[in-house]
Each structure stands twice: as C-alpha cells, then as structure tokens.
Design goal:
Elements lengths: L18 H14 L21 E2 L12 H4 L15 H4 L8 E6 L5 E4 H7 L3 E8 L4 E11 H8 L7 E6 L19 E5 H4 L5 E6 L2 E2 L9 E3 L12 E7 L6 H5 L23 E4 L5 E3 L7 H4 L14
The structure holds ligand MTE and molybdenum atom (MO).
Length: 312
Amino acid sequence: MHIYRRRGWEIPDHQVTPREAVLGRRAIMVAAGAAMALPAAAQSGAVPPLPAHSRNERFSPGRALTPERDATTYNNFYEFGSSKSIARDAARMPRRPWTVKVEGLVENPREFDIDDLIRLMPLEERTLRLRCVEGWGMTVPWTGFPLAALVNLVKPLASAKFVSFVSAQLPAVMPGLRQSWYPWPHMEGCSVAEAGNPLSFMALGLYGQPLAGANGAPVRVLFPWKYGFKSGKSIVRIVFQEARPPTFWNTIQPQEYGFWANVNPAVPHPRWSQATERLIGSNERVPTQLFNGYGEFVAAMYEGMQGEQLYL
Ligand SMILES: Nc1nc2c(c(=O)[nH]1)N[C@H]1C(S)=C(S)[C@@H](COP(=O)(O)O)O[C@H]1N2
Ligand SMILES: [Mo]
C-alpha cells in the first residue's frame, strides 16, 4: 500500500491528487468525452471560495488519501435516498443563503448566517479518517473549524450536558424524506464534553473546495472516532440541553446503533464483524482501530462510564 505522509514543507493534502483519482478522471474523459461533468460542477447556490487557512497536522492519519472522486460520489445521505449514489440529486442542495441556529442552555444563543460564521471561526484544514458502521472507511482533507471554537463562543451553561445537531429538512430537493417511516429531521447528538474535544470538527470544505451537497453542504459535523452516522450533514440547528437527545439511527434500531457509537473492532455489530474495514477507492481491507485510531485524544472522556454502551 502507498502511504502518503506529508512533511511540514510539502504542499497541503488538498493539492495532492491521489494517483487513483487522476487515473479515474482520465479514464472517464477518454470514455465519455469533455461533456462529462463531475457532480461538483453542477452544485446549486453560488458559494464564495473558502478563505485562507492553515493546516493542522496534529491529527494526521498516516493513511493514504481516498481519491476525491470516491469521497464525493459514494455517500450515505438518507434525505436523498438510501443508495450510495445520491451525489447528483444532492447537488441540488441550496447552499446559500444558509443559517445555523445555536440555542438552548447557552449564555449567547445566536442565529448565524453561514458566511458570518465562517468569518468568525478559526479555519484550518485537517485530514481525518471516517469509518462508517457498515464497514467502509475513507481518509480525506476537510476544511472547517474546531467545534470547540463555536462552543466557546456561545458559552454553554453548567446545566447543559448534551448537544444535538439537526440536519436540514428540505422536501423540495430531498426525495428521501418521502420515506416517512424514518424519524425526520435527521438528528444526532453528543455530550458537551465531546463537543469541546479538539477532534470534533465542523467541516465547510473537502479537498479545498466548499462542501458539495453529497458530503453535507454547506456545513456538517465530524466526530472521527465515532461511526460515521454520528457525523450529521447540512446542519441548521445546534441545541444545548440537559437531557440526552433522541438520535436518528438509535431511534430506528437501538439494538444496532448506540448513542455513543465509538469505533471498536472488538465489538461486532449484531449482524456483522467490525474487525476490519474496506477503504473506498482502493477496496483494500485493513484492520479497524479502537476509537478509529484516535484513542490518545478521546479515550480519557469515557473513563468511569463503564455502565454505558460505548461501542455500538
Ligand atoms: N443528515 C444526514 N447526515 C448523515 C447521514 C444521513 O443520512 N443524513 N449519513 C451518515 C452516515 S451513515 C455516514 S457514514 C456519513 C457519510 O459521510 P460522507 O458521505 O461524507 O462520507 O454521513 C453521516 N451523516
Ligand atoms: Mo455510515
């Protein structure tokens, strides 16, 4: 396997095109001619380019990057349907105007226009792994800001114990919402401590470009040590609260998808093993790691929580 480890003097990850992506694109152009457009080209809503930002190497994954084309065309986004091929439909996501309301048990509740939020927050690029509970994984460079920066701005009250993340519910562009047996809107949650962890991230971009609809435009949350279903897309509302919020997959099937959902290769899903994962793009199978390899940053948060189902 080709592992790409960036050194300080090298160019940012988003400027490095993985070899597979180059070959894939060339093959597409030869096969379909110049009229072939990647889904990103047709995104709806004019979005300004991401402002200048630095790179944060603290969480560098030591794993090859997933080709951009795979990360942007193989997705889970049930609002657009339950297939992996929703990128074309999700390109209809209206990315502007967009507001994110932060409310509940905080000193400074606030409704942010997305571009004001971008100006206020400390932007950085960081490369993270994402591990889906279904058994696949990817490694991509995200641009965004630490969720902790937003938490510090709104100042949670001492009574706030949990945070919920509500995704957009836009019937005009989201055919998946017609699947009325799902508990829309998509909602996810974490503890206030988890929201303040330096690994928790609010992503605005992928591979140096503003997020495409498929990856959760214009802003989505990322908890890279948890199964991917915790990382809600297209966030419109963040609520600080005392009670643990109901969450999407946990409501649908609590025996299969827990609230904490920390990645653990030793705890199988009731219907399949979690010992290994398939890297999308290369299809290589590699061992899954406890906390998706991020234990040094997050394990301490779960000490003394033995009574909880932390790994499902
Ligand atoms: N709103 C919303 N967020 C979501 C989902 C979804 O269906 N709806 N799918 C989740 C799942 S299961 C995964 S694995 C990741 C996938 O993120 P990606 O498509 O950017 O790889 O998004 C998560 N966030
Ligand atoms: Mo997932």
